[in-house]
Amino acid sequence: MSQKKSIKRLLDKHLGNAKLLLFLILLFGLVLRLIFFSGMGTSDDLAYSRYAANIDKGVDSGSVLTLSTRLGIIYAAAFSYKLFGINDFSSVIFVLLTSLASIVLIFYFGKLLFGEKAGLMAAFLLSFFPLDVFYSTKLFTDLPSAFFMALGVYVFLYSELKIKLRYGIRYMLSGIFIGIGYMIRESVLLIALFFIIYTLYKKRIKKEYFLVPLGVLIIIIIESVMFLNLTSDP
Q: How far apart are CA 168 and CA 159, in angstroms?
């Protein structure tokens, strides 16, 4: 019995420094992703890379490919190409960063809803989750769009459960993050189902809730302006 108490005290002592443990988990996740580096293939990632490399020429308004309209991933890759040139690593650095950021985000999700221990466990599990590791170094939209969608939900729940700012600014930020995810992959908008179910569960609608779709709308307007500039068609 005393041995179990000693082990519990030891675990609690180490868990007390959650930020250090989170950093070590993040480092572990980074090393794992670099060891199993995937790089570019001949699927959607090649199309995104081509659009990003030729973004100065605009977007082909006659293209029927949805891939050519995902400006979030295309501009992120184009910016990376400007900084580091066109290569395997520069192509996927944005996706890699959002994969690592998801480890941090899931920690704060767990901490918000269930406590630090749950957050650390969730972060550790995500750090070596096979699909996340594999897709973290491929130029696909799955991980970046999921990160921004989840970030929007986190900001919303944080606004609901913690101290609220004046004018509900966090609710609008929630919508903006979801909107950024939409610019990367359109299916992000399906997260609307979560907000509908949440509202039904709470059995109330606060005026601040309308700031979430407003934030999404702001990003859609910005995207339309970008398309207008690139193709003369919003």
A: 8
Higher pLDDT, 131 or 17: 131
Q: Tell me: the pLDDT tens digits for 125-169?
A: 999 999 999 999 999 999 999 999 999 999 999 998 886 666 678
Alpha-carbon torsion, ordered 215, 216, 217, 221, to 10 deg: 100
CA Rg value for the chain: 20
Cα gap 131→121, rounded to integer Å: 18
Helix or strand or coil: residue 192? helix
- The candidate with the shortest Cα–Cα distance to 99, out of 45, 153, 148, is 148
Q: How far apart are CA 175 and CA 40, in angstroms?
A: 31
Structure tokens at 57: 């020429």
Q: For residue 7, is pLDDT > 50?
A: no
What distance in Å separates the CA atoms of residue 144 and residue 180, rounded to the nearest whole number? 9
Report the length, in residues, of the chain: 234
Rounded mean pLDDT of the chain? Answer: 89
